[in-house]
Design goal:
single chain, mainly alpha, 90% helix, globular
Length: 173
């Protein structure tokens, strides 16, 4: 299969997945939570195996404790997907708030005399910090849709980019 055809096919699938996630953000959010839980579970099992399989490994105890934490976290998220969803949403809210505050700091360090850069950073920081506060103040209301909506936006963006790349590649072939 040519690269252009591959990009077009994967782009179309990403767009379809993005539309489905946009229509059903709660289910996309739960799927993301399940994926995170399964990943933690898998990493915990592999980490515990590594900690006990190699007796010469430095810091085996720390690796084992960290792996055990991942294992427990994975089991907890998979056993309590709604609570896991809220926990992941709160973490995203913290991330948005912190990045927003950092952009505001950078904007004021850059100064108003720099023109558009200041205003773009200021606006971006206000939006991110505001979104972070909104998520942190209302986690139960935002959890069912936030992760799914972000996944939808990413899939739509990636799908459009892959289709554009596929079309560009088709012209050069």
């Amino acid at each position: 299969m040519k690269g252009s055809t591959t990009c077009l096919t994967i782009g179309a699938l990403a767009l379809l997945g993005g539309l489905i996630a946009l229509i059903f953000p709660f289910f996309a959010s739960l799927a993301a939570t399940g994926t995170v839980g399964a990943t933690f579970l898998f990493l915990g099992v592999i980490g515990l195996y590594a900690a006990f399989a190699d007796s010469g490994l430095r810091d085996r105890l720390w690796l084992g404790l960290f792996a055990l934490l991942q294992l427990v976290l994975g089991i907890w998220i998979l056993a309590n997907p709604l609570a896991g969803l809220i926990s992941l949403t709160v973490m995203l809210g913290i991330l948005f708030l912190v990045t927003g505050i950092l952009r505001l700091i950078w904007a004021f360090r850059l100064g108003q005399g720099t023109g558009r850069g200041f205003w773009i950073l200021l606006l971006s920081g206000l939006v991110s910090a505001g979104l972070g506060l909104w998520v942190l103040l209302f986690p139960a209301q935002t959890a069912p849709v936030l992760l799914g909506t972000l996944i939808a936006i990413e899939l739509l963006s990636a799908g459009a980019a892959l289709i554009a790349l596929g079309l560009a590649l088709k012209k050069t072939q």
